[in-house]
Amino acid sequence: MLNGGAAFAALGQGSSAGTRLFALSGHVRRPGWYELEMSKVTFRDLIYDDSLGGGVREGRQLKAFIPGGVSAPWFFEEHLDMGLDQEAVGNAGSMLGSGSVVVMDENTCAVRAAWRISRFFHRESCGQCTPCREGSGWVDKILRRIEDGLGREEDIELLLDACDNIAPGLTWPPKQTTICVLGPSIPSSIVSGIHRFEDEFLLHVKEGGCPHPPDEVRHV
Ligand code: SF4
Q1: Quick one: which atom of ligand 1 is closest to the CA of 180?
Q2: N or C: which end of the chain has fewer CB within 10 A?
Q3: What's the CATH architecture for 110-207?
Q4: Domains of the chain, residue spans
Q5: 136 C-alpha to center of ligand 1: Å?
Q6: For atom 8 of ligand 1, which residue has the closest CA?
Q7: CA-CA distance, 144 to 118, in Å (whole number)?
Q8: pTM of this prediction?
């Protein structure tokens, strides 16, 4: 404000001009709010720079990160050098969304992470639209039984089918089938988790429970 609009617009580039607040949370050494120049600062800078996130907690490896709130499809190691740029992130199949970046370390259980996010949507659904009201309940129950060791192999397909009934085609951005955007936001974490970590989902089924040791389970 002190420098004026032109100075603000000279920062960043294209449709991602200026600065923006990002809320960094999860398994980083220095979670917090950071005001950063759009496009020029990368996810790697945000997560690993000592003046920002400071790296993954306890020196662990990165497993995944959510680039813009729990409605956003997950990103992975290969996305770290992407700038905090709305267009680039959108073209890569996700969004900067709310500006909430959540880091998951290598010990995070992908099933539990997807379940906790789905449970949030189920709790928040106001119940007006069938895909959101019923779909959120279905995915919450299926994910919970997989995490609890009561899952079946066909549950992976069932989860994707339930998601497809919420937002047909499982495209990004998702098809809008409901009054507000909460409903079509439900599949993102589940589809991301299954596409990247299907083996981990199946291991829960085969081993009859979460393969992560109880004292090592880390979740968002
Ligand atoms: S999509 Fe929005 S309006 Fe429809 S049930 Fe879900 S929260 Fe309610």
Answers
A1: 2
A2: N
A3: Up-down Bundle (1.20)
A4: 5-105, 110-207
A5: 10
A6: 126
A7: 10
A8: 0.94
Tens-of-pLDDT digits for all 220 residues of the chain? 899 999 999 999 999 999 999 999 999 999 999 999 999 999 999 999 999 999 999 999 999 999 999 999 999 999 999 999 999 999 999 999 999 999 999 999 999 999 999 999 999 999 999 999 999 999 999 999 999 999 999 999 999 999 999 999 999 999 999 999 999 999 999 999 999 999 999 999 999 999 876 655 454 4
CATH of domain 5-105: 3.10.20.600
Q: Alpha-carbon distance 71 to 66, whole Å?
A: 9
Would you say 12 and 37 are in contact if contact means Cβ atoms under 8 Å apart? yes
Range list of β-strands (E), 78-206: 100-105
Residue with tokens 């945000």: 46
